Amino acid sequence: MVQCTAMQNFISDISHKTFSVTERVSGKSIRNGVLKEIQKDHPEFNESHFIAVAELNYYRQLYIQNLLAKEVGTLTELEHTVLDNINQNHLIADEASDVKNEATRGQRWADRIASFGGSWRFIGFFGLFLISWMILNIVALHNKGFDPYPFILLNLLLSCLAAIQAPVIMMSQNRQEEKDRDRAKNDYMVNLKSELEIRMLHEKIDHLIIHQQESLIEIQQMQADAMRDFIDELNARSNAA
To answer: What keywords is this UniProt entry annotated with (predicted)?
Structure first.
C-alpha cells in the first residue's frame, strides 16, 4: 500500500517503484475500462491501491489502442453475424432462380398438346383440314361421298376432338398453376431475404453509430482526465518551487 517517506514519496502498487506523491493516483478515481486493463497485468490491483500518473497514462494509451482496434474489427464481426443468422434460420432459399419441374410423361405430353392447340399453326392446319373435307365431299364426290352435307361425321369428329382437348388443356393449366405457385414462393423468399438483410443493415448501422459515440465520449473523457492530471502535476510542481 502507500508508503510515504520524509521526502513525500510513495511506492506504486504496480511497479513497486518510488514516485513523487504529487503523481499518486488512487484506484477509485480510475475509470472502469482502464482499471480492467491494469488488472489484466496486475489482477491484485483494486480501488484501494495507488498508481503513478506515468503508469496510468501508459494504461490509458493501451486502452485507447485496444478500443480503436476493436472498432476496426467491429464491421467484419457484424457481417459474420448477419451471414450466420441468415444461414441458421433457414428462411432463405439457396437457389431461387430455378424452379424444379419434375413432370411425368403424360404431363409433358399434355403441355405439348396444349401448346400446339393454342397456336396459330394449329388453327391454320385445322382450317385447312375443314376446307379440304368440305371440298372433297361437295365438289369431288358431288355431295354423295362418305360424309355429305350437313357433314354429320365431321361434326362427330369435332365433338370428340373438343371432348379430348378440354381435359388435356385443363391438365396443362394445372401444371402451369403449379409452376406459378413455385415461382411465387421463390419470389416471396427472395423478398423476405431482402427484408431481413435491410433490417439487419439498419441494426448494424445503429450499432456502429452508438458504439462509435460511446467510444468517442470515453476517449474524450480519458483525454480530459490525462489533461487534468497534467495540469495538477504542473500546479504541484509550481507550488513546490
So the answer is: Membrane, Transmembrane, Transmembrane helix
- Collapsing DSSP states into helix, strand and coil, what is residue 46? coil
Of the two residues 151 and 106, the one the predictor is more confident about is 151
CA-CA distance, 82 to 59, in Å (whole number)? 34
Q: Report the alpha-carbon distance of residue 67 to residue 36 in Å, rounded.
A: 13
Indicate the pLDDT class of residue 241, thresholds 50, 70 and 90: low
Q: Do 182 and 119 sit in the same domain of this protein? A: yes
User: For the segment 217-227, what is each residue's pLDDT rounded down to a tens digit?
Assistant: 777 777 787 78
- Asked whether residue 149 is domain-assigned, the answer is yes
Residues 41, 14: Cα–Cα separation, whole Å = 9
- 229 lies in which domain range? 9-72+207-240
CA distance 104 to 137: 41
> Burial, 69: exposed, middle or buried (Cβ in 10 Å; 0-12, 13-18, 19+)?
exposed
Task: Indicate the helix (H) or strand (E) that contains 60.
Answer: helix 53-89
Could you give the CA distance from residue 183 to residue 99 in angstroms, rounded to a whole number?
7
Model-level pTM?
Answer: 0.40
What single string gives the DSSP state of each residue in 137-180? IIIISTT-SSS-TTTHHHHHHHHHHHHHHHHHHHHHHHHHHHHH
Q: Are residues 33 and 110 in the same domain?
A: no
Residue 157 has pLDDT above 80, yes or no: yes
Inter-helix orientation angle 53-89/152-240, to 10°: 170
